[in-house]
Design a protein that fits this description.
Helix content: 10-25%
Strand content: 35-45%
CATH topology: Immunoglobulin-like
Oligomer: single chain
CATH superfamily: Translational regulator CsrA
Number of helices: 2
Number of domains: 1
Order of helices and strands: EEHEEEH
Distance between the termini: 24 Å
Amino acid sequence: MLILTRRVSQSFFIMPHPALDPATTVAELFTNGPIEVSVEQVSGARVKFGVAADQRLLILREELRQNEGS
């Protein structure tokens, strides 16, 4: 499980990993179940999320995605 801390108006993205075979079906990505997003902690304006997803999915904080030029 990946742990991310976000503040008000910040976000994160879940997308296919660039190395993922384009022939992979959505059903294959969810063979072991759905993506689970849980709130782990709330402290003032910060929320700590836990994200459990197939390893072939990429989870990126908003600022890292912007740095990639996506």
